[in-house]
Structures are given as structure tokens and as C-alpha cells.
Amino acid sequence: SDDGAMGSFSALSHLECSACAGEFDAGTLYGLCPTCGRPLLARYDLTTVATTLEQVAARPPTLWRYHELLPVRSAEAVVSLGEGMTPLLPLRRLGERLGLNRLLLKDESPLPTGSFKARGAAVGVSKAAELGARSLAMPTNGNAGAAWSAYAARAGLEMVVAMPTSAPPITRVEVAVTGADLRLVDGLISDAGRLLADENAANPRWFDVATLKEPYRIEGKKTMGFEIAEQLGWRMPDVVIYPTGGGVGLIGIHKALSELRRLGWLDGPLPRLVSVQSTGCAPVVAAFAAGERETAPWPDARTVAFGLTVPKPLGDTLMLDAIYETGGTAVAVDDTQIVDDLELTARLEGIFLCPEGAATVSAARRLLVEGWLQPDDEVVLLNTGAGVLYGDVCTQMSSAIRAAAREAPAVSTGK
User: Is the model's pTM score more than 0.90?
Assistant: First the structure.
């Protein structure tokens, strides 16, 4: 086995602050940077990753095939439900309809608990447990809470989840059935976060695993980037269109492809990264349009794409930097268009996207009409979860949106 010595399983060397560049010991359980309070990032000694591509190819088809570039130091510490290696599907009929000849979908819906959040949870829970955490807590818009609750149960850890009452009901069931301590909050994910912070401040007993408040969720999410590169034969697409709430997936894909390029496994320019948000909550789009490196809190955030309801993401600077560095862009699409494209994709391709995934279809259409995309660009859309998780939301929204559209016609985006 190539998993013998502890050092060979992970090339993790240290943690580095994304803002002040301070370095910290990766053998200690850290949340945010102790110096400046910004997110910490895992760094690897890439010179020790002697693993050849052939070795990766021979490993089981889970995200742990990339274990040297993941932070868990021993194979025994891995908590897994078989996550990873989701399909990269050509969308020929949808592409033809939109006018894109090389349209692909990275479909995360087959993952445990039905969304891409399983990646962050697998790595985040494994590492927290390896470093001695016994109790974890997070605010969630639904899917992350479901995923972390499942992996915490598998690891034997206590999990506390705070979720808006408006989150998809099935995610509430997923959290409850795996034995997590569920708190419902009448408000947004930011209110859920405050509830947990206040409770833990009074009596600190759990480790906060909210988005980017610990360094390892992003390491699980970055495996989407590794898989896209491997599935394309170790090369990069022209464009990756990603629905962004907290933005960890976008940041993770950028980190992954940058690491692979430094290893020499990939060459050439990174794909242009596109952040897609809803017009009902578009802090990153507004910041990008203004040329800023930080977002302003979005007032009265609401959208059918519930995972995009993050009024001020903690990783905003990292997200915007990734967009600027790759010559990418940020685009907001409206809920009417999102639901229309969810239905269009299902009819043409048989794939029931989540609303966040459908938003990437709307964005691709618009960017092509505006000339930002060309018909022959190779474009990868990310579907971050299973549409069935939102079945009731979609049903309500379809009829509600159609009624609203009859009263006030939607602005055409070139469909």
C-alpha cells in the first residue's frame, strides 16, 4: 500500500492566514487566524508529493484518491461515506438550445445527503476528529447541516445545527434523523450564526465549523477541481460557472487547480471562474461590478435558490480574488429565469437540478448573449445538489413565479 508512513498519506505542512500570511501549526485545532481573525488555508509541501498520476488513477473512486493533497494525516482517521468522483456529463441538447457547443455539467447530486456539502463535511469532520474535537456546531441554509450531521454521526461526534425555519424541510429531517441537536431560527443564516455564537460565548463547548471559520471544509470542496481536471484527462476547461453563497466551492476549485499547476500535473491558464448569484442576494456581483475586494451586507436577502442566501460571505475577498485572478466575472440572475431553466434542463437532459445549479444555466445563457462566452468555449456548470431536496420549494415557486410573471413580465435575458 502507498498509505504506509504517516507522512505519505498527507503532505500537509502548515496553516497560512489568507489575509496576514501568518503561519500556524497544522497539528493544532484552529478556527480563524488568531492574529487577524480571517480564514486560514491549509498548505502542502508539494515537493513531497511524488505520487504519479498512474497511482491516483489506480485508487478507489472517492475524493480520498487525492489524499496527499488533503489534510487528514492518517488513513485510519478518514471518515467516509464513499463520497467523490461525481459524473461530468455533456449537455448536448441543452447546449444546442443555448448555443454552446461544449457544455458540461459536474453533477454533485449523487453524493451522500444529496449535495456537494458532503465533500466539505467528509474532510472537515475527519480532520476535526483527528485533532481531538468532540463537539461541532454550525449555522446552515440546509444542505451543509444535513451533510455535517451525517458525517458527525459516522465519526461519533456531537453536532449542533442552527437553521432558518425557511430552509428546505427535507434538510431539517436529515439533520434530525442523524441525531444532531437542531435549532430553528426565524431569520437568515447570519441570524443562525449569531444564535450559536452567543450560546457558545457564554459556555464554550463546541468547535465552530461554519463556512471558512475552520480551514478544512474548503479542502474537501477543492476536490471538485481535482476531479474536473482528472475527468478531462488532466487539463482545464475554459470556464467554470459556479453558484456562490458562502463561495467555498469557488475558492476551493481555484485552490485545487493552482495546486495541480504547481505540481506540474496541469499547465496553461486557469479557467475563467464565474460567480453566479440571485438578484435577490447578490453581494459578490455588486462588489465585482464596483471593483471591490470585499462585499457590503445585502439587505433583505431572499431567493428560491436557498443556498445563495448569504448576505455577507466571510470568504468574499478570497472569492473576488479568484474571479479577478482568472479573468472571470460575477453575474446575478432572477428567480423566474432560475425556475424556467430548472424545468428546461429537466426536459432536455433528464437532470433535475437544484435551483442553485439551474442558476448556472441562466448565467451561461446570459454570458453568451453578452458575448462574454463564445460558442466554442468549453464550459463546466456546477450542479451543487439534488433537485428532489427542493421538490416542494420548486412546486411552490413554479406556480408562484408564473403568477407573478403574468402580473409583471420578466425581462428577457436572450432566451
Answer: yes
